[in-house]
Amino acid sequence: MNLINPDIRYLKDIEGVVYDKKWLKTAPNIELYYMYRGLDRRGDLRYDITVMPSQMLGIEFVKTKGHYHPKQYGELYIVLEGQAIYLMQKVDKDNNVVDVYAIEAKKGDYIIVPKGYGHITINPSQESLKMANWVCDGFKSDYSLIEEKGGAAYFYTLNGWIKNENYDNVPDLRFEAPEKKEPEDLSFLN
Ligand SMILES: [Fe+2]
Fold first, then answer.
1. 8 alpha carbon to ligand 1 midpoint, in Å?
2. How many A from CA of 36 to the centre of ligand 1?
3. What beta strand segments (E) does 53-159 contain?
4. Which entry of 29, 119, 169, 171 is 20 to 30 Å from 149 by CA?
5. Does residue 128 lie in a domain region?
6. What's the gap in Å between 30 CA and the centre of ligand 1?
7. Structural domain includes residue 111
8. pTM of the prediction?
9. What is the pLDDT of residues 88-102, one digit of tens each?
């Protein structure tokens, strides 16, 4: 790990998207995950590492806040240690979900975030998750669409997947498999 200071995300930063509001009322402002940005560069692409220790947010498994990119930019994740679930969703112009799917991944897996999809990452395990991503540098992620709805379309909890009632007509959650090697065509990145 590089000796640079990570950006730390605290519970306060993501409280608007946490499922378990009862737990939230008395929860301390704990550290959730650590983002080490810009550890490598290739052209206009940036390599980051995120570390997310195993933790429960009440009954919900710890997760990232979630965001969308400008439409022309996807992202590539690599699980370095532990396990992850990547939730991807696509919305229409009124912020209604038109597609939502999950990818369960473990160490060594590659995960493509397609252009136009918002994404969150969940640590569903009892080990620390360490993941890397390649992403185009120089755009700002949009957190507002997911914040506005109090989270993504589904929450992953001790009771399984729970639909977010703030969205109307959410499609059933479908599942896709991760890639087992680095994709040759990286044109979804930029
Ligand atoms: Fe992203």
1. 16
2. 14
3. 56-57, 60-61, 75-81, 83-91, 97-106, 110-113, 118-122, 129-136, 154-157
4. 29
5. yes
6. 23
7. yes
8. 0.96
9. 999 999 999 999 999
